[in-house]
């Protein structure tokens, strides 16, 4: 079906571009790993691309894990990411199902409200959010981050899932109702399992976004025991002006990157689906 | 079972699925956004008892604030730079990986998306290291070609430092838009290309006459999306890499908002910057949609 490029020179040039860009993406990751195994002295004596000297300083990892408390931040990030993804999924799936299947007064406006909120710049909400959370005593808590993140992913979730539920055949629900299942039973036992591909796609995209989120985390958390990984990376990088510990900094970056990289490797297809689903506005 | 209870059950079901979500959404999204608009008319340092209504004074003050003008300029510089850089490269890769029959297309596609799954904070730190004057990658690389050690402070120029923030922003954005464009190109019926090939149309002609018109809608959406995400979110990379410095020369609206509110405690002024971001993104959306309107082609 595809003739491809006929001119070998042109083809080689295009290949070269692809390879150069590929290297520009892979190399920083590789180099993060290599630099995580160096001590400070090697950073200043050797070239940035030189390999770490033996013995490799794997201890940099245990150092950031315990001395910099990355163990705690890792757990915090996990709890916040899983909690807010789960909560966001539950809230958006329930509303999406009703919006897709039931007509009631205002249902259309409600759908439009959610969808159009994707156009509002979220920075606008940062200042009030800080004071709101403060008055609710949710500053410096994981619950605070969870509810804010969960709320921030609702519009995207509803946008994708309403489309998903609408596309499912109605007969299955009708059969379930005829069998005497309640509305809730139908939703949880019939519709949710059927919409699994959509749910997984949204969950993955949200996991990546929430795990990586920085600015809300910085504003809502200033107690170091409650930091998430990106917040601590920001703090650590600012501290580097006074005490330089480059090896541990790179080890810290790697601790932050590896989980999302694993998620990406395992769920590539869902992520691509999520992007294309979310962008067809 | 009479129809009254059936109706009641149905309504309870609907309410129980709609209301919790709506409450969350109103409390943690709608209400803060409206509050943000409201605060922009106040002089407020964060203490609730010292909030003073000052009408449009924050906005008037902005007219005389050279930093906000600089920030707006930087924002639009980043928008323009990212739109051009990302769209040209992403379109190039999307076409190359779908239309040119490369064997490793799938592999490259997977690799190119990686920067998009990494936190902006991490990207900022990595690029800071590339630019680091003493131990950075860029200076070490340039030193290979010079007698003396190169020690350029890449992020320290009082002018044009904003240019240094463009490469990381473009680097981080390519994969996402490439995936969108690949999906759009794959939606173009293969028969169009086959017909063109039979008639001997070159790859370039096929790109100009088939691909471009048919994925134009997606390109439009992508450009609008880059604009929006840049005005709303580019400040994170700015904050990590330069904190708006040196001497506020790389400040963008978002970073200036953050600095005003959370560093200098001018919450009212910060909120009014948020208002400006909203207004500018709406205006820019409308203008861009007008500019890009007439070139759309409907796919049958």
Automatic annotation (TrEMBL), chain A:
Xref: PROSITE patterns = ABC_TM1 (PS50928)
Q: Which GO terms describe its biological process?
A: transmembrane transport
Q: Which residues form the ABC transmembrane type-1 domain?
A: 74-267
Keywords of this protein's UniProt record, alphabetized?
A: Cell membrane, Membrane, Transmembrane, Transmembrane helix, Transport
Localization per Swiss-Prot or TrEMBL? Cell membrane
- Membrane topology annotation: Multi-pass membrane protein
> InterPro entries of this UniProt entry?
MetI-like (IPR000515), MetI-like_sf (IPR035906)
UniProt GO cellular component terms: plasma membrane
Statement: the UniProt record of this protein carries the keyword Transport = yes
Specify whether Iron is a keyword of the entry. Answer: no
Instruction: State which residue ranges cross the membrane.
Output: 12-34, 73-99, 111-131, 143-165, 186-211, 246-267
Source species, domain of life: Bacteria
Report the main location listed first in the record: membrane
Homology family: Belongs to the binding-protein-dependent transport system permease family.
Q: What name does the UniProt record give this protein?
A: Carbohydrate ABC transporter permease
Organism, scientific name: Cohnella endophytica
Recite the lineage of the species.
Answer: Bacteria, Bacillati, Bacillota, Bacilli, Bacillales
From TrEMBL, chain B:
Ordered alphabetically, the record's keywords are: Cell membrane, Membrane, Transmembrane, Transmembrane helix, Transport
Q: Which CDD domains match?
A: TM_PBP2
Q: Which InterPro entries match?
A: ABC_transporter_permease (IPR051393), MetI-like (IPR000515), MetI-like_sf (IPR035906)
ABC transmembrane type-1 domain segment(s): 72-288
Q: Which positions make up the signal peptide?
A: none
Where is the protein localized? Cell membrane
GO BP field: transmembrane transport
Cross-referenced Gene3D superfamilies, in alphabetical order?
A: MetI-like
**Entry GO CC:** plasma membrane
Q: How does it sit in the membrane?
A: Multi-pass membrane protein
Per the record, a Pfam family?
BPD_transp_1
Ranges annotated as spanning the membrane: 12-34, 76-98, 110-130, 162-185, 221-241, 267-288
Claim: Lipoprotein is one of the keywords in the record: no
Q: Which PANTHER family match?
A: ABC TRANSPORTER PERMEASE PROTEIN, DIACETYLCHITOBIOSE UPTAKE SYSTEM PERMEASE PROTEIN NGCF
The entry's family comment says: Belongs to the binding-protein-dependent transport system permease family.
**What is the name listed in the Swiss-Prot or TrEMBL entry for this protein?**
Sugar ABC transporter permease
Q: Which organism is it from?
A: Cohnella endophytica
Organism lineage: Bacteria, Bacillati, Bacillota, Bacilli, Bacillales
């Amino acid at each position: 079906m595809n003739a491809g490029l006929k001119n070998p020179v042109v083809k080689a040039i295009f290949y070269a571009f692809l390879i150069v860009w590929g290297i520009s993406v892979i190399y920083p990751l590789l180099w993060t790993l290599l630099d995580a195994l160096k001590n400070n002295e090697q950073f200043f004596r050797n070239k940035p691309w030189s390999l770490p000297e033996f013995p490799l300083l794997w201890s940099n990892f245990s150092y950031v894990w315990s001395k910099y408390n990355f163990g705690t931040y890792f757990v915090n990030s996990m709890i916040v990411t899983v909690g807010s993804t789960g909560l966001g999924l539950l809230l958006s799936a329930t509303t999406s199902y009703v919006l897709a299947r039931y007509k009631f007064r205002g249902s259309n406006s409600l759908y439009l409200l959610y969808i159009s909120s994707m156009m509002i710049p979220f920075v606008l909400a940062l200042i009030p959010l800080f004071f709101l959370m403060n008055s609710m005593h949710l500053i410096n808590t994981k619950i605070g981050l969870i509810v804010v993140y969960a709320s921030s992913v609702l519009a995207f979730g509803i946008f994708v899932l309403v489309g998903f539920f609408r596309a499912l055949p109605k007969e299955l629900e009708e059969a379930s109702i005829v069998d005497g299942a309640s509305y809730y039973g139908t939703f949880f036992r019939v519709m949710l399992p059927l919409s699994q591909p959509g749910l997984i796609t949204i969950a993955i995209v949200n996991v990546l976004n929430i795990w990586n989120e920085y600015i809300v985390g910085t504003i809502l958390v200033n107690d170091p025991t409650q930091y998430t990984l990106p917040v601590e990376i920001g703090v650590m990088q600012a501290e580097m002006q006074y005490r330089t510990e480059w090896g541990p900094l790179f080890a810290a970056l790697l601790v932050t990157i590896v989980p999302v990289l694993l998620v990406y490797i395992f769920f590539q297809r869902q992520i691509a689906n999520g992007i294309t689903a979310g962008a067809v506005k | 079972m009479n129809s009254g209870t059936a109706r009641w059950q149905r309504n309870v079901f609907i309410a129980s699925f709609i209301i919790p979500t709506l409450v969350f959404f109103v409390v943690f999204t709608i209400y803060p956004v409206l509050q943000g608009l409201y605060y922009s008319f106040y002089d407020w340092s964060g203490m609730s008892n010292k909030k003073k209504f000052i009408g449009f004074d924050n906005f008037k003050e902005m007219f005389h604030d050279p930093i906000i003008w600089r920030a707006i300029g930087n924002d639009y510089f980043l928008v323009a730079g990212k739109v051009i850089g990302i769209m040209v490269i992403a379109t190039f890769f999307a076409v190359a990986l779908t239309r040119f029959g490369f064997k490793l297309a799938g592999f490259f596609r997977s690799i190119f998306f990686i920067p998009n799954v990494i936190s902006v904070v991490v990207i900022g730190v990595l690029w800071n290291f590339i630019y680091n004057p003493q131990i950075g990658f860029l200076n070490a690389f340039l030193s290979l070609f010079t007698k003396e050690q190169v020690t350029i402070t890449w992020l320290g120029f009082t002018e044009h430092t904003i240019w240094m923030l463009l490469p990381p922003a473009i680097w981080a954005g390519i994969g996402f838009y490439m995936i969108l464009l690949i999906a759009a190109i794959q939606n173009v019926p293969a028969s169009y290309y086959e017909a063109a090939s039979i008639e001997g149309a070159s790859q370039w002609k096929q790109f100009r006459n088939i691909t471009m018109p048919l994925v134009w809608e997606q390109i439009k959406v992508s450009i609008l999306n880059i604009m929006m995400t840049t005005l709303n979110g580019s400040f994170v990379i700015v904050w990590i890499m330069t904190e708006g410095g040196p001497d506020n020369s790389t400040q963008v609206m978002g970073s200036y908002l953050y600095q005003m509110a959370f560093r200098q405690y001018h919450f009212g002024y910060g909120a009014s910057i948020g208002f400006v971001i909203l207004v500018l993104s709406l205006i820019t959306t409308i203008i861009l949609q007008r500019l890009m309107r007439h070139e759309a082609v409907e796919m049958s």
